[in-house]
Amino acid sequence: MQALQQEFYVSCNEMICEWEQMVSSKGSCEMDVWPYLDSLSGDVISRAAFGSNFQEGKKIFKLQKEQIALAMKFLQQVYIPGLRYI
């Protein structure tokens, strides 16, 4: 549990440092935080499960997102035999 907390702390700290750099260069800014939170979750999972960071596992996460999109598309196209004759 301690290791997971440490990995989560490191990931959050990196994200917050990036935000602080953005704010210090502009004074203030408005931003969409969803991409950062998405990367944060991937980074925490990568660090805790695989001992690497999000940048190294980025390709795997991209492929997983593509796979989910294809699965959702497939599931939305339900084929009912004989439906065209009704």
Structure report:
The chain is 76% helix and 0% strand. It is mainly alpha-helical and 86 residues long. The longest helix is centred in the N-terminal third of the chain and has 25 residues, at 2-26. α1 packs antiparallel against α2 (34-50) and α2 packs across α3. The model has no long low-confidence stretch (mean pLDDT 81). The chain is built from three helices and no strands. The chain has helices at 2-26, 34-50, 54-76.
Quick structural gist:
This protein has 86 residues and is mainly alpha-helical. Helices cover 76% and strands 0% of the residues.
Please give the alpha-carbon distance between the first and last residues: 58 Å
* Number of helical stretches of at least 4 residues: 3
Q: List unreliable stretches of 5+ residues.
A: none
Largest sheet: none
The value of Rg in angstroms is 20 Å
Structural class: mainly alpha
Spell the H/E element sequence: HHH
Percent of residues in helical segments? over 70%
Sheet-strand content, in percent, reads under 5%
Q: What is the oligomeric state here?
A: single chain
Mean pLDDT: 81
User: What shape does the CA trace take?
Assistant: elongated
Number of strands: 0
